[in-house]
């Protein structure tokens, strides 16, 4: 992934190279509605993650301002619009921007450490908000959203905002270019973003590497094409593909198993694609 860009879109995404910005002195004067959002623990894309209009429930769900007890993993699944050519933070953000009819249904994979089943995930799994990750007893599961459109603008999740008491010039420079720096395991978009958060220049490291949890020894337990079907013709309420309570409807379209050839020991796992019209509706409280 490129560390910065010099194309015509970079000012929109705030990931221009410093020399391009210095040449035109085109510092950003306002916050961008685009946020770097995870597709998985090691891949992120820019998404439209605000909701300036639409129903109150959709705004809360889009901007993830719901109570912790109402936080659902659906809030963390970005969706791509074939019409706008942009990713949206979740299906509620797409609804806020009138993109529901143009959404490309994402392919989603869930992989877990050994001996975790769907039943165990739904019964005792504890979702970690914003991380596409569940803790399941002593194990864990991760959710991966596949960028099948290959049109997402890749990004590094980093600190991109200044403290409220920062001066306007530093805030503008923080928003305008990409030159990742780290300090104390925190990744900042650029040195100005670090400085306006109280970091000393002498403490910065020009290293974009950020410590990331790498989940090893996972097996795929679900792989499906998600259809955010509407419940009772209410667009802000969507189906939950995982917690489908009707066993018959959630059985597979097909399953297949990889098995080692003769004389070779190999892992075997069942790759299940679930029925994409489940029975469970998800609605956050207003």
What does this 3D model show about the protein?
The chain has a five-stranded mixed sheet. A five-stranded antiparallel sheet has the order 7-8-9-6-12, with helices on one face. Strands 13-14-17 form a three-stranded antiparallel sheet. It contains seven helices and 17 strands. It is an alpha+beta fold and 286 residues long. The radius of gyration is 21 Å and the shape is globular. It comes from Nezara viridula. Keywords: Membrane, Transmembrane, Transmembrane helix. This is SMB domain-containing protein.
The structural class is alpha+beta
Strand order of the largest sheet: 1-2-4-3-5
Number of helices in the DSSP assignment: 7
Please give the largest β-sheet.
5 strands, mixed
Mean pLDDT level: 76
> How much helical structure, as a percent, in the residues?
10-25%
* Radius of gyration, whole Å: 21 Å
Q: Shape, please?
A: globular
What percentage of amino acids are in beta strands? 25-35%
Q: Write the H/E string, N to C.
A: HHEEHEEHEEHEEEHEEHEEEEEE
Unreliable spans: 245-279
Keywords: Membrane, Transmembrane, Transmembrane helix
Transmembrane segments: 251-270
Protein name: SMB domain-containing protein
């Amino acid at each position: 992934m490129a560390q910065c860009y010099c194309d015509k879109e970079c000012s929109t995404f705030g990931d221009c190279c410093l020399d391009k910005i210095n040449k035109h002195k085109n510092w950003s004067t306002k916050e961008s509605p685009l946020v770097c959002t995870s597709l998985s623990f090691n891949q992120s894309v820019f998404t439209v993650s605000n909701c300036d209009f639409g129903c109150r429930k959709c705004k809360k769900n889009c901007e993830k301002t719901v109570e912790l007890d109402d936080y659902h993993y659906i809030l963390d699944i970005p969706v791509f619009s074939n019409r706008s050519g942009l990713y949206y933070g979740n299906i509620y953000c797409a609804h806020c921007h009138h993109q529901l009819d143009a959404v490309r249904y994402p392919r989603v994979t869930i992989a877990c450490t050994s001996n975790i089943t769907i039943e165990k995930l739904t019964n005792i799994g504890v979702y970690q908000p914003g991380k596409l990750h569940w803790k399941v007893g002593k194990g864990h599961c991760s959710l991966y959203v596949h960028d099948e459109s290959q049109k997402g603008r890749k990004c590094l999740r980093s600190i991109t905002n200044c403290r409220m008491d920062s001066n306007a010039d530093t805030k503008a420079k923080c928003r305008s270019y990409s030159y990742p720096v780290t300090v104390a395991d925190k990744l900042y978009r650029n040195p100005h973003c670090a400085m306006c958060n109280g970091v000393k220049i002498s403490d910065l490291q020009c290293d974009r590497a950020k410590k990331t949890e790498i989940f090893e020894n996972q097996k795929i337990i679900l792989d499906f094409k998600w259809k955010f079907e509407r419940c009772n013709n209410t667009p802000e309420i969507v189906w939950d593909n995982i917690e489908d309570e009707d066993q018959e409807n959630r059985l597979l379209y097909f399953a297949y198993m990889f098995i080692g050839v003769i004389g070779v020991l190999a892992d075997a796992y069942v790759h299940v694609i679930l029925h994409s019209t489940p029975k469970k509706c998800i609605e956050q409280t207003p």
